[in-house]
Amino acid sequence: MIGKKISRREDIEELVKDSLKKSIKEILEKNNSYLDVMERVKIKRPYVVMFFGVNGVGKTTTIAKFAYMLKKRGLKVIVAAADTFRAAAQEQLAIHCEKLEIPLVRGKYGGDPASVAFDAIQSAKSRGFDVVLIDTAGRMHTDKDLTEELKRIVRISKPDLKLLVLDSLAGNDALEQAKYFERVVDYDGVILTKIDADTKGGIAISLAYELKKPVLYIGIGQTYDDLIPFTPEWIMERLFS
Fold it and tell me: Which stretches make up the SRP54-type proteins GTP-binding domain (predicted)?
């Protein structure tokens, strides 16, 4: 608004609101990129997608939703339970995979997660699967061993797409997590969970503005269908309603 001339006839409040809308839309559109895995699979198969995120953000459920979304579009999906750290992580993923009738590659607790990811990729190649989804252990930036393990999984599995799962209700914490994972693995995009419980979903603006990272998908509920592609219009409508 600086330097803008305003006549007395104009409605200042509307002018400010319109200017704010325009600025926010520009930020969101600049860093928004629609992801069509179907198109990418045509170029590279198996297409390897790796998921990151701290415990409690809804990563396991998000992977199940992502798998369902791909299966619904006719793709053959296999999942790697490479979280060999957290108790019951593999069981949780196994329940989802059983419901969705999607194969799961598992490892021993305390075992090497990178080998689980590697085995899943080899299995996908030999059995003709289109997409490999890799789960990883939830990490905090204070745990150096897990951080090194994360880098090793990336190095060995060479994912085509690295997705960070963030809880939209975490506010500034989510931004700190995003910065940490950017330093460690430099992910490609974000999936925001629990956005149906967040009144506005403003974290999408912070991610786009501060980190130049696109939000690719949003979780809007509990069912497998409740993962949808993110659009700037979706956030704009909530912010200004």
Answer: 214-227
Residue-level pLDDT at 97: 96
Residue 143: partners with Cβ closer than 8 Å, 6 or more residues away:
none
Ranges of H-type helices in 158-210: 172-185, 203-206
Amino acid code (one letter) for 135: D
> For 183-198, what is the mean pLDDT?
86
User: Could you tell me the residue range of the domain that residue 26 belongs to?
Assistant: 21-240
CATH, residue 188: 3.40.50.300
Task: Give domain status of residue 62, yes or no.
Answer: yes
Q: Are 180 and 154 in contact (CB under 8 A)?
A: no
pLDDT at 162: 94
Q: Would residue 221 count as lying in a domain?
A: yes
DSSP state of 45: S
Given this model, what pLDDT does residue 227 score?
Answer: 92
Burial class (CB in 10 A: 0-12, 13-18, 19+), 140: exposed
Cα 82 to chain centroid, rounded: 17
Q: How many CA atoms lie within 13 A of 195 on its CB side?
A: 26
Average pLDDT estimate for 42-61: 90
pTM score: 0.89
- What's the Cα-to-Cα distance from 232 to each of 28, 117, 208, 229, 235, rounded to whole Å? 6, 33, 11, 10, 5
The SS3 of residue 186 is: coil
Backbone dihedral region of 214: left (phi > 0), alpha (psi from -120 to 50 degrees) or beta? beta
Contact 27, 202 (CB under 8 A): no
